[in-house]
Hints:
The structure holds three protein chains of three kinds.
Chain A: H1 13-19, H2 21-46, H3 53-65, H4 75-104, H5 119-122, H6 124-143, H7 156-163, H8 167-194, H9 203-230
Chain B: E1 3-10, E2 17-24, H1 33-46, E3 68-70, E4 73-74, E5 95-100, E6 108-110, E7 113-114, H2 117-124, H3 146-156, H4 163-167, H5 174-185, H6 194-207, H7 218-222, H8 230-245
Parallel strand pairs in B: 1-5
Antiparallel strand pairs in B: 1-2, 3-4, 3-5, 6-7
Chain C: E1 18-19, H1 36-43, H2 49-52, E2 56-60, H3 64-76, E3 79-83, E4 101-102, H4 114-124, H5 131-151, E5 165-166, E6 176-177, H6 183-200, E7 204-207, E8 210-218, E9 221-229, E10 235-239, E11 242-245, H7 266-273, E12 278-279, E13 284-290, H8 308-311, E14 313-317, E15 334-335, H9 337-341, H10 351-363, E16 375-378, H11 380-386, H12 388-406, E17 415-424, E18 427-428, E19 441-443, H13 461-483, H14 495-514, H15 520-534, H16 541-561, H17 573-597, H18 621-624, E20 626-631, E21 640-645
Helix pairs in contact in C: 3-6, 3-13, 4-5, 5-13, 11-12, 15-16, 15-17, 16-17
Amino acid sequence: MALATRTDRRPSTTRTIWDSSVGKKSVMAVSGLVMLGYLVVHMLGNLKIFFGADEFNGYAHWLRTLGSPFLHHEWALWIVRVGLLAAVVAHAVSAYQLSRRDIRARPVKYAHKRRRASYATRTMRWGGVILGLFIVWHLLDLTTLTVNERAWAGHPYENVLSTFSTWYGNTIYIVAMAALGLHVRHGFWSAAQTLGAGSARRDRTLKFLANGLALVLFAGFVSVPVAVMTGVVN
Amino acid sequence: MKLTLRVWRQRGADAPGHMASYEVDGISEDMSFLEMLDTLNEDLILRGEDPVAFDHDCREGICGACSLVINGDAHGPERTTTCQLHMRSFDDGDTIDVEPWRAAAFPVVKDLVVDRGSFDRIIQAGGYITAPTGAAPEAHATAVPKADADFAFEHAECIGCGACVAACPNGSAMLFTSAKVNHLNVLPQGSPERETRVLDMVARMDEEGFGGCTLTGECATACPKGIPLPSIAAMNKEWLRAVRKGPR
Amino acid sequence: MSDPQHDHRRHPAFADYTTGEPVADTKAPEGPIADRWDRRRFEAKLVNPANRRKHTVIVVGTGLAGGAAGATLAEQGYHVVQFCFSDSPRRAHSIAAQGGINAAKNYRNDGDSVHRLFYDTVKGGDFRARESNVHRLAQISVEIIDQCVAQGVPFAREYGGLLDTRSFGGVQVSRTFYARGQTGQQLLLGAYQALSRQIAAGNVEMHARTEMLDLIVVDGVARGIVARDLITGEISAHYADAVVLASGGYGNVFYLSTNAMNSNATAVWRAHRRGAHFANPCFTQIHPTCIPRTGDHQSKLTLMSESLRNDGRIWVPKAKGDTRAAADIPEPERDYYLERIYPSFGNLVPRDIASRAAKNVCDEGRGVGPGGQGVYLDFADAIRRMGRDKVAEKYGNLFEMYERITAENPYEVPMRIYPAVHYTMGGLWVDYDLQTTLPGLFAIGEANFSDHGANRLGASALMQGLADGYFVLPSTINDYLARHPHRDTVDDSHPEAAAAIRETRDCLAKLLAVDGDRTPDSFHREIGELMWEYCGMARSEEGLRKALDRIPEIREEFWRRIKVPGRGEEFNQSLEKANRIVDYLELAELMCLDALHRAESCGGHFREESQTPDGEAARRDEEFGYAAAWEYQGTGAAPVLHKEDLVFEYVHPTQRSYA
């Protein structure tokens, strides 16, 4: 009698994850958390600017010698960069594919429009695009120094001051950090749900944590241009 | 009460649709929303027009047939089913927009009626416990902790109406799917199929063309039975666990 | 009326009938009642498992009975073709049952047993059910709970993890298993999930949104059905080795009832027209605890679970026309009439008694609420005794539902309730094997007449539906299929099949062609109000005769003035409705006739002429100790009555006493 209704053949784990909306979301969650961890460290490093050019530039130099003598010069940095690139690509590709699926799932829109969900939730997609563009500019500005007006290789302190001495530099940066705060606010909580950490009991804690992280990152990053603009750092 | 209704009219699955305006008068605030539509339809029939098609059956809020988006809200402004929504939730002179569930996986059949067969197919993919009739052990052979039984019940309350999909900006069926996965996976009886169930149901859900979850929470807000949002997280956990362990 | 054969006229009116040969169940084995089911299963022929795939069984309906039967037959290896008019099998009206399901598990050690459940059911049914069937039902009740738990039905549990039970109207033991106020939903989803598994396995071919409109009978044997695809309007015939009707009850003939809007009598009635006898159509159950109606717009009535009577106290003011708010009526001026009249059962008397008592106090002018059509169901004492939280845990969802509908908070103001049509004990006549008088046609669940006699006890409908679907039919249908292997195949070209298809098309075409000036609902409402007035909670010869005079007039007017917009070849809900009313207009007539001929009171059937001096129902066993199976003779033509004598070997008929 034909009682079995399931097949035993299953695709590989990677295939299962990548082919599934839930799997792809978990790829987004993990890559997002990787980037979030990096951002916390990055933000703390940035705060060194308040202790003067020597300390800041020294820190930048140390980053290049990290792991030595075991690792060659800048190898640690490159490992981090490759990891981050992988995270960004995984995050963006998943996001793109999931968004396409989401849009296809509602081909006809409602005639009666009404505001749905919170601002942070609604701006995840555009916020993500803004952040992606910002990263490009940020790398061209302070890593490759391509667009930095007073580019001075090996002197990040001075380069940062240069960026934040222009109105557009400040604007781009602050807008992007606001987008980051919103993105982290919903993204962190969402990632926790996707990875199954959410429950009715933990919901408040997770929301508090998400808001806290968003606020701390925003405040930490934005404190630098604000300090430059107000002359606290010069 | 006198109301203006703007109702989605569409003759058939492939026909074009539009919002049509109707005036209804003499509406009592004790009427349910569907009884108000009955009144409209009685008028339309007598005027020789085609009455508005809508799904409904028990009118007690349990069968899950009724499915209207009212002023942009699935099942309207109260947290209940359309059949249990009463006209006292509206004011005299209101204009009310009535639309069908909108989702690629719920194609319109006619007017406000949609095809929710995709939900049935998700259940067919694994939303059951394999227990052929006659094979059951004595009911008290396995005690189920009350907390687990209550958790199962809370999720088993889903009526399969599809409001979660209708409300979700992505047309996602995660809340529906998670309700059944959680109901069955928490029970000792459901545990042998725990991994295959969640993997197969999620795969089916994706195949049906539902969107993904972006945790907007709209589904849980619209759910007339109060299936909670953390239900989705619980299913994600089950899914990841199943991927890690592999189906037994 | 007592001897209709003497009342010869040239054109016999419907109110006349002739009495034909008695009908008898030939399937229940002799011997001790407790052994009969075992013996029947042993004596029944079986179909070789390898051959089952070659047998097709049509199941109409996907409620508790149909869903369970479809799943189980498919598990056994039969090819099942199943139909439901809803968009999904999960929406069948079994889903709305709130209270619970009885089972003689005796988990409470309170003196329950299979025999006690059997006894309670026969007595509750006022001695109008067949003993063999009821005993089997009681035996199977325990297996149902096991089956449902194995399927994952989340019944209420105690802190120790074991199943909780509660008591229900008409019994003194706690044997009702429940899942908050949604037991029917949970049991139905269990059956639906089992069915879904079989659909996925390819063993069940499911036709949703497809309604049976006729039965195909070939050479006196049921061989298929004619169905309409409700989306495209396409009429098609489906053929099988046996047909199972699990299409529910016919309470919607009353227009206002607790049935779902789409529940209807078409499947059973058209089977009746094709030769299946219809038994005890006048046995309808009026449920005592429904929310009173508010106005003419009302499309249906909502039931509040009978379990509320466990903790709620029913009362009305002692004085007539007392319009004070409930809270302003002091204790000594309240009449807790059920507790007063029936001190040992109090608020837990059977449904028919509670309903009639409510009608009586309202008729006396002591009813409460708009129109005086209501009585109070008061939880003030329960809240004082158990605390608000405990009451909320037990009845929270019911209280919410009440408040949503009435905008009154039952924690503060007593609920108002009034009886409403709820369940129909009558249905297609079936033997012990659940086979109708038409070979190859089976009827299960509420669609048949068995088990509940003249009144159904609370929490017994779910039990019967599942017993029939999971356990009885899958055993007994083997015997039929094994003994009647169909070697010939039937198709649309067969004269009898072609006739059924043509008649179905003609009926729909006729409905569309009238193009009159009255809507289907207006006729439904008219026939419903007539039935409630004359064939409702209390019936009299005079009233029933009035109804029998009026029904043919309504029917004539229907065919002259009905207006059905649209076409037949499309999704057309007005056409669906009108087509169902065609059957109500005939069924109503048979219900009235059955009520008229049964000049006794029993269970849900209360004849004003037959009552004890203190107003209780007076049964007349000598004359009416039978089930009345009616044979169709044509629309408006006098039907033939076949009596099935009921023999009581184990439970001896007594006048029911709940005092």
